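Much of what follows relies on a compact textual record of a protein's fold. An example makes this concrete, so a full record is given next.
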Amino acid sequence: MMEKPLITISIPAYNLGTYLAKTLNSIFDQTYQNFEIILVDDASTDRTSQTIKEFANKDDRIRAHYFQSHQGVSKARNYAIDHAKGDIIVFVDGDDLLEPQYLEVMAKGLADPKVDLVAVGYNWGWRGGHSGSSDFREVSKIDAYDSINQRGGDFGGYTWNKGFKMSVIKENNIRFDESLDLAEDLLFTADYVFVSHKFLFYPGALYTKVSRSNSIIHSATWQMRSKEQTVRQHIDDMARKIQP
């Protein structure tokens, strides 16, 4: 991989109010500036689309797209995968915050052509929040996979604390399952880890998960939760087939 790889930042946006501007500002404050942002407005009914237009007018690294009807986060992320120009892709939620070194650490870790995925520490209430060490440590394939279904785990199944290689995604046709409203990130990460080999974890908390009362995780229906459990069982079944 080149010394300064282009990083694609995928951001789905749906009725994010004032959160989106803070997220975008944390991206523009990054120490690593070779990035593009694929920002998909998922038919928001508040001023989200206006915020997107205001920022896009200021910086041509934002590539905005507007869904005409609400499609869901997986559809928006798949759109980013299909249109990404980067060597690396990160999936940022439009209401969260990045520490200034987030992209730099992703680029540094994935500079090794043998490394397939980099995960970083995060802050989310009582979950995560590591500090002190600034050294990468290698995570075995078995441990990475076991962590996907572990709630609050360091490595975890979340997509937002990870950098993925676009070459791995394209070669294996890895997609977000658009039928899922929950656990779509866990399944994507599981599919990616299943076909990958070398993983690095950076313990510094570089991503802050912001909890909104109206987010999907707080408003999930019984049917959504039921599908989530089916996905988790599927991931456990896949784990038994893992080849280190």
About this structure: The beta strands are 7-13, 35-41, 62-66, 88-91, 97-98, 117-124, 127-128, 137-139, 162-165, 199-208.
